[in-house]
């Protein structure tokens, strides 16, 4: 079965209100390249995990990184293809600074017939001082990309 290949535009995708969970988190498009996507998650008190410190919970950061790395797969494929997160490992290095926007950048560095390999990082203003690193894989549910 042939699947039509529609050129994927991450900026248009995010502006259209698509992205479900990402929309509820307030994720916004930031930048992209041929195999990477970057988005921002502005600070929002609804996302606080520790009310005493004001630190954003880890779940929204994980969701943002899942979206950024997923979009990097579509960019590398130059089209939208259904896929599922098979594994996404997150190494949290430090808490996000309260009040700051969190930036997430995902990169797809290899695609095989059925698996896409991704990596990325999240930071709150300085990429040299990341909040988290991620590494993962996405699987094509039909068995091919």
TrEMBL record:
- Enzyme Commission code(s) on record: 3.1.2.-
Q: Which GO terms describe its molecular function?
A: hydrolase activity
One Pfam family cited in the UniProt record for this chain? 4HBT
**Does the record bear Oxidoreductase in its keywords?**
no
Regions crossing the membrane: none
Top-rank taxon, per record: Bacteria
**Which key words tag this protein in UniProt?**
Hydrolase
Segments forming domain Thioesterase: 54-127
Q: What is this protein called?
A: PaaI family thioesterase
Record the organism. Sphingomonas qilianensis
Higher taxonomy = Bacteria, Pseudomonadati, Pseudomonadota, Alphaproteobacteria, Sphingomonadales
């Amino acid at each position: 079965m042939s699947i039509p290949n529609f050129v994927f535009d991450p900026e248009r995708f995010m502006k259209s209100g698509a992205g479900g969970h990402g929309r509820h988190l307030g994720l916004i498009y930031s930048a992209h390249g041929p195999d990477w996507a970057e988005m921002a998650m502005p600070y929002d008190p609804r996302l606080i995990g520790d009310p005493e410190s004001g630190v954003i919970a880890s779940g929204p950061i994980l969701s943002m990184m899942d979206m950024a790395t997923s979009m990097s797969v579509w960019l590398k494929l130059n089209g939208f293809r259904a896929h599922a997160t098979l594994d996404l490992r997150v190494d949290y290095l430090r808490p996000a600074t309260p009040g700051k926007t969190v930036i997430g950048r995902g990169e797809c560095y290899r695609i095989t017939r059925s698996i896409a390999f991704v990596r990325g990082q999240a930071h709150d203003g300085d990429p040299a001082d990341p909040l988290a690193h991620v590494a993962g894989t996405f699987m094509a549910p039909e068995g091919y990309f």
